[in-house]
Amino acid sequence: MSATILVVDDEENARKHIRDFLNGEGYEVISAANLEEARSQIRQDNADIILLDVQLPDGYGPDLLEETSHIEARPPIILITAHGDIDMAVEAMKNGAHDFLQKPIQFNRLEQSIQRAQKIVAMRRELNHLRGQQRNELNFIVGKTPVMRALVQHAQRAAQASASVLITGETGTGKEVLARAIHQLGPRASKSFVGINCAAIQSTVLESELFGYEAGAFTGAQKRKHGLMEVADSGILFLDEISSMPVDMQAKLLRAIEEQAFRRVGGTNLIKVDVQILAASNRDLPTMLREGNFREDLYYRLKVVDLDIPPLRDHKEDIPALVGLFVKHNNQRMGLNISDISERAMQALMQHNWPGNIRELRNVIERAMLFCDEATIDLPHLSPEFQP
Length: 388
Ligand SMILES: Nc1ncnc2c1ncn2[C@@H]1O[C@H](COP(=O)(O)OP(=O)(O)OP(=O)(O)O)[C@@H](O)[C@H]1O
Ligand SMILES: [Mg+2]
Prior knowledge:
By secondary structure, this protein is an alpha/beta fold. The chain folds into 3 domains: 4-131, Response regulator (Rossmann fold, 3-Layer(aba) Sandwich), CATH 3.40.50; 146-311, P-loop containing nucleotide triphosphate hydrolases (Rossmann fold, 3-Layer(aba) Sandwich), CATH 3.40.50; 315-386, Orthogonal Bundle (Helicase, Ruva Protein, domain 3), CATH 1.10.8.60. The protein has helices at residues 12-24, 35-43, 63-67, 86-94, 107-131, 146-161, 175-185, 203-211, 228-231, 247-259, 285-290, 296-302, 319-334, 343-351, 357-370, and strands spanning 4-8, 28-32, 49-53, 55-56, 59-60, 77-81, 99-102, 165-168, 193-197, 212-213, 225-226, 236-240, 261-262, 271-272, 276-281, 305-308, 340-341, 376-377. The chain has a 5-stranded parallel beta sheet, with helices on both faces. It has a 5-stranded parallel beta sheet with strand order 9-12-15-8-16. It has a two-stranded antiparallel sheet with strand order 4-5. A hairpin with a 2-residue loop joins strand 4 (55-56) and strand 5. Helix 5 (107-131) packs parallel to helix 13 (319-334), helix 6 (146-161) packs across helix 7 (175-185) and helix 13 packs across helix 15. The protein starts with a strand and ends in an 11-residue tail after the last strand. Mean pLDDT is 90; it is low at 131-138. Adenosine-5'-triphosphate binds next to helix 7 and helix 15.
């Protein structure tokens, strides 16, 4: 993410020094020599982050905190204090300063502080961006990280080609969300998306669920029933937790996929379909292959395109955007108007390991919003495991 940093300092040398460093790190820099110029830049919404000197020719820097406190998404303000002026710094932090740095500025501290501020800015941008969107956008957040971007690109290709896709990833990483996104991205978007959770269905009824049955096929089969393969005709069949499918059923499924045809249980007619298959698993299929619990031929048939979603701990940079998405959803759903998250709360989220991945993050945000009566989610609103 690119950010524009407003440097407010009356000393030209100091401004230049900071500007050179920040430009070198890839930031845009604008500057103000006094409070009046700073106010004007803020009014024009030119700054994402503000670096603010305390003593300025036309006033006291920290007054800007109070003055701008009503701005809904005020840029994070980093104060530059004289050495030893701790009382003032503490007071400023209470008034909502993002951070303070002592003179002479250490560039590594400055860089760290700006990076943290950027997370807040990124989260807000996502929130704003979503607010501005009218249509019901894809619920799958693409994210900013190269891994997630590549993933979505591959998903897009698979969608357009109607290819079979095997989606793998730990629990809560978004396998089902991605499957639905593939549906929306491809030529079958207006056709059905039929999901079946192979782990939730008894293996004895899996076959009749998938292929349907004829009247009289077994006791209790009073009328013909269409299976999900038929329901999904010209659309998509999503086989969730495919690893739970019994091996004999796997053989029947493979045949049906390859021939795009099958027979109902108790039936003789061959029924032709055109179904795109998506499958998901959070178990390690290669291990199951070796142990003989998953058929190799089916495995390779399913993974024409292979999408492995990384655990959230491996793409934590996407947390701010995800938080923005969930805040927006919950605002609508729960009738709230939360517009921000505090620096320390965001820090705590960034430090967590997320064993439950994106689902866990969604739940943490929902809980925080239930406990939050202000416009800003803060550390105490997060569950006990996030408390220092
Ligand atoms: N990329 C994403 N963008 C937005 N929300 C997401 C994303 N990925 C996951 N989620 C959220 O996380 C929840 C869990 O996702 P999903 O049910 O797809 O996980 P899963 O990988 O199928 O997990 P499991 O293996 O436990 O079935 C979703 O309901 C959604 O709220
Ligand atoms: Mg799932």
